[in-house]
């Protein structure tokens, strides 16, 4: 068999698999839309390979085969993600409100796939998918996928789509590189330990130095990815207020695993969230109140091993690049979401909902998910909230059910409001 | 029928060589293939060749209709200079100015590929293959540095 035949055979298999997936009973059409886009992607790979002349140069055939194989690796997990969007464990009640919120920020053609994840214990994020530019992809870890208290983390995932659609990586690239170059200048001797041929004096560390520019490519890219994570945190916080902080702590505190170069370390994220909360609180009285000792819940992830000194140095440059951008990113999230007129937490509304929750009854006309979810976290943290209802054996289950019910009520009211 | 590699251009109107969310590797292979077809005397469109020229122009801010900015992102520099180093067609470069000059010449050659001599087209095709390799390696270098799953080898 030839390389090309192997590749076409693999593509036929995945296309057959997608064909079967398309027969699934999708609760919402966007999952199927995503499948169709991926089907087109793999069909294009197949057509390219089949269209090559028999005597095509092996180097070109190999690269087309490699591109197809790369996409198989890249999208296989995503196909499973789409399949799991049909699973009844998902909290389908939240789909409508989250789609509405996403479309309010990004426009009516925004699509949403809500699913669950078995690969990692965190809301699933995918590397940007050029084929699905306007899709918001939200996947909660499977054991928590019906837990509505974690919905605020969907704000973070929405942030990723905003980041890509608005091309913020391009917007911030120059500033990030400036920060990194300034950091290298301030640590010139250290830089020279690793890259002695790049410069003879501090003044040679300039953007026009080709060797420096090549050396900072990786840390600059890591820093941009870290900026994206900061931005997404700020989006989640702005949209869902302290409910975002509680959901973040619930899922990630204290910490787990080794640090990724693509993320700021945990304590830095928490510190920046606190700064963002202080900034956003200036505009809304009584809002964004970070719980006392919030940071004490967290620890940093373990750093890179000591034998990776050069990588550690590059990562420290990336950290400097991203940390210097957080003020801009907080403002970016705030101005963008403010312009979209997204509903924010109303303390009065939250208390009105709490009054209903006292009787395990959903409230009407609650106006936003944020109001419901912040009320929910207040109940979660108050062990005496249902003291007057001894028949409630499992507080957390009762809370989840009333919250999901309230989200359903919100969605029904929104549908009726939008009806002609 | 095939379609040109999807890039983020469809979504935001701009893509750069170093963008990790752009499918520069596939676009470069498609361009290499179109040039190969041209060299072999077979009918072909040069859609991907034109698109790659556009990506290079955007990456190096070469469009004369735009106000000239000096910023070229480091990812673009890393990918392009590696492609130049590995491509037999390229001279080695040691300054940013030389790199931009190389990019300008390659864009010009891509834009006039139809009437180019075979030897020049072959160089250009080999450069496109080197560019595909360089951008693939660059993207992998970024994402493969995530911590590995402790339960997987």
Report a brief summary of the structure.
The complex is a heterodimer of chains A (420) and B (153). Chain A has 420 residues and is mainly alpha-helical.
Report the helical percentage of chain B: 55-70%
- Work out the number of β strands of chain B: 0
Which stretches of chain B are low in confidence, meaning pLDDT under 50 for 5 or more residues running?
7-13, 147-153
Q: Number of helical segments of chain A? A: 16
- Return Rg of chain A in Å: 24 Å
Global Rg of chain B: 16 Å
H/E element order of chain B: HHHHHH
Largest interface: A-B, 53 and 55 residues
Properties at a glance:
heterodimer, A: 420 residues, mainly alpha, 4 domains, two-stranded parallel ribbon, 16 helices, 3% strand, B: 153 residues, 0% strand, disordered C terminus
Describe this structure in words.
The complex is a heterodimer of chains A (420) and B (153). Chain A is 61% helix and 3% strand. By secondary structure, chain A is mostly helical. With 153 residues, chain B is an all-alpha fold. Chain B has one domain. Chain B has helices at 9-12, 24-39, 47-59, 74-86, 96-111, 118-143. Chain B is globular and about 40 Å long. Mean pLDDT of chain B is 81; it is low at 7-13 and 147-153. Classes of the chains: A mainly alpha (420), B mainly alpha (153).
Secondary-structure blueprint of this entry?
The complex is a heterodimer of chains A (420) and B (153).
Chain A: H1 3-22, H2 29-51, H3 58-84, H4 95-106, E1 111-117, E2 135-141, H5 152-165, H6 168-186, H7 188-194, H8 210-215, H9 217-240, H10 242-252, H11 266-281, H12 309-323, H13 326-339, H14 347-357, H15 369-380, H16 395-418
Parallel strand pairs in A: 1-2
Helix pairs in contact in A: 1-2, 1-3, 2-3, 4-5, 5-9, 6-9, 6-12, 9-10, 9-11, 9-12, 9-13, 11-13, 14-15, 15-16
Chain B: H1 9-12, H2 24-39, H3 47-59, H4 74-86, H5 96-111, H6 118-143
Helix pairs in contact in B: 2-3, 2-6, 3-5, 4-5, 4-6
């Amino acid at each position: 068999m030839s390389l090309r035949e192997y590749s076409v055979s693999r593509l036929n298999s995945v296309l057959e698999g997608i064909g079967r997936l398309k027969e699934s009973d999708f609760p919402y059409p966007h999952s199927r839309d995503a499948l169709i886009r991926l089907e087109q992607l793999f069909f294009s790979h197949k057509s390219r390979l089949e269209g090559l002349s028999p005597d095509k140069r092996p180097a070109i055939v190999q690269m087309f085969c490699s591109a197809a194989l790369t996409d198989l690796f890249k999208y296989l997990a995503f196909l499973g993600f789409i399949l799991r969007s049909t699973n009844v464990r998902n909290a389908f009640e939240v789909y409508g409100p989250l789609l509405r919120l996403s479309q309010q920020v990004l426009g009516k053609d925004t699509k949403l796939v809500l699913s669950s994840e078995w690969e990692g214990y965190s809301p699933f994020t995918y590397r940007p998918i050029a084929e699905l530019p306007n899709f918001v992809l939200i996947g909660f870890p499977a054991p928590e996928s019906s837990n509505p208290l974690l919905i605020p983390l969907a704000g973070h995932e929405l942030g990723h789509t905003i980041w890509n659609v608005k091309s913020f990586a391009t917007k911030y690239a120059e500033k990030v590189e400036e920060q990194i170059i300034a950091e290298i200048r301030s640590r010139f001797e250290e830089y020279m330990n690793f890259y002695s041929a790049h410069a003879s004096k501090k003044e040679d560390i300039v953007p026009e130095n080709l060797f420096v520019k090549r050396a900072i490519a990786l840390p600059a890219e890591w820093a941009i990815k870290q900026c994206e994570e900061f931005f997404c945190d700020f989006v989640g916080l702005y949209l869902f207020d302290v409910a975002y902080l509680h959901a973040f702590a619930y899922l990630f505190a204290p910490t787990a695993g080794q640090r990724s170069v693509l993320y700021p370390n945990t304590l830095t994220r928490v510190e920046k969230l606190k700064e963002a909360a202080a900034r956003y609180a200036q505009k809304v009285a009584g809002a964004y109140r970070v719980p006392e000792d919030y940071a004490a819940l967290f620890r940093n992830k373990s750093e890179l091993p000591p034998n990776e000194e050069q990588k550690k140095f590059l990562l420290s440059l990336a950290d400097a690049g991203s940390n210097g951008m957080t003020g801009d990113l907080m403002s970016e999230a705030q101005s963008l979401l403010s312009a979209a007129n997204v509903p924010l937490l109303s303390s009065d509304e939250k208390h009105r909902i709490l009054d209903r929750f006292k009787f395990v009854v959903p409230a009407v006309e609650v106006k936003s998910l944020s109001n419901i979810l912040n009320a929910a976290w207040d109940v979660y943290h108050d062990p005496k909230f249902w003291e007057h209802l001894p028949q409630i054996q499992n507080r957390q289950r009762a809370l989840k059910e009333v919250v999901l019910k309230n989200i359903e009520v919100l969605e029904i009211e929104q549908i009726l409001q939008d009806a002609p | 029928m095939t379609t040109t590699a999807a890039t983020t251009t469809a979504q935001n109107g701009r893509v750069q060589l170093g963008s990790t969310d752009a499918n520069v590797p596939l676009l470069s292979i498609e361009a290499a293939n179109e040039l190969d077809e041209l060299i072999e005397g077979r009918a072909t469109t040069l859609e991907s060749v034109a698109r790659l020229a556009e990506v290079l122009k955007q990456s190096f801010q070469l469009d004369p209709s735009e106000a000239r900015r000096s910023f070229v992102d480091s990812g673009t520099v890393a990918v392009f200079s590696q492609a130049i180093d590995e491509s037999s067609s390229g001279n080695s470069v040691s300054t940013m100015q030389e790199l931009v000059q190389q990019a300008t010449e390659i864009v010009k050659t891509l834009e006039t590929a139809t009437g180019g001599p075979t030897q020049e087209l072959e160089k250009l095709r080999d450069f496109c293959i080197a560019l595909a390799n360089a951008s693939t390696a660059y993207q992998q270098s970024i994402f493969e540095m995530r911590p590995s799953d402790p339960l997987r080898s």
